[in-house]
C-alpha cells in the first residue's frame, strides 16, 4: 500500500493511513526507509503468521541503495538502530529515517569532540 507522508495535498494533508491501522489489534505494520529495508521487511511480512500491512512511501520509489543478495529478513517488532549515541534519540520511520542520518552524524561528531 503506497503512501505519501508529508506530501498530501489540500484537504488530505493530515491523513496518514498508518495511524488508523496502528489501532487495529493484531495487525502489524511495516514501513521501509530504504531499498534494503524494503526487501527485508517484505520477506518478513510474507513469512509472518499474523496479518501485516506493508506501507510503501512513494517518495522512496526513486531511492537508490544497496540491497543485500541472498537471505535478508528483518525482525518484525524490533526497531532498526541506524546510529547509536548517548545524548539524543531521534525516533522516526519511513523516508525520514534516512533524512536524519546526516544530522545525527553531525550531532555526534560535535559532541564527541
Automatic annotation (TrEMBL):
Q: Which PANTHER family match?
A: PYRUVATE DEHYDROGENASE E1 COMPONENT BETA SUBUNIT (PTHR43257), PYRUVATE DEHYDROGENASE E1 COMPONENT SUBUNIT BETA (PTHR43257:SF2)
User: What are the record keywords, sorted?
Assistant: Thiamine pyrophosphate
GO molecular function ontology, one term from the record: magnesium ion binding
Pfam hit, one: Transket_pyr
The secretion signal range is none
- Its recorded name reads Transketolase central region
Protein's UniProt keywords contain GTP-binding: no
The Transketolase-like pyrimidine-binding domain extends over 6-61
UniProt cross-references to SUPFAM superfamilies, sorted A to Z: Thiamin diphosphate-binding fold (THDP-binding)
Keyword Methyltransferase on this protein? no
Amino acid at each position: 500500500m503506497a503512501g505519501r507522508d508529508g506530501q498530501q495535498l489540500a484537504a488530505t494533508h493530515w491523513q496518514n493511513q498508518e495511524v488508523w491501522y496502528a489501532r487495529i489489534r493484531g495487525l502489524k505494520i511495516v514501513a521501509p526507509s530504504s531499498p534494503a529495508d524494503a526487501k527485508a521487511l517484505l520477506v518478513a511480512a510474507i513469512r509472518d503468521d499474523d496479518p501485516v500491512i506493508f506501507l510503501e512511501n512513494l517518495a522512496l520509489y526513486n531511492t537508490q541503495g544497496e540491497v543485500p543478495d541472498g537471505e535478508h529478513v528483518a525482525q518484525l517488532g524490533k526497531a532498526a538502530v541506524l546510529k547509536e549515541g548517548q545524548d539524543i534519540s531521534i525516533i522516526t520511520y519511513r523516508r525520514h529515517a534516512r533524512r536524519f542520518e546526516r544530522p545525527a552524524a553531525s550531532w555526534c561528531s560535535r559532541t564527541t569532540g
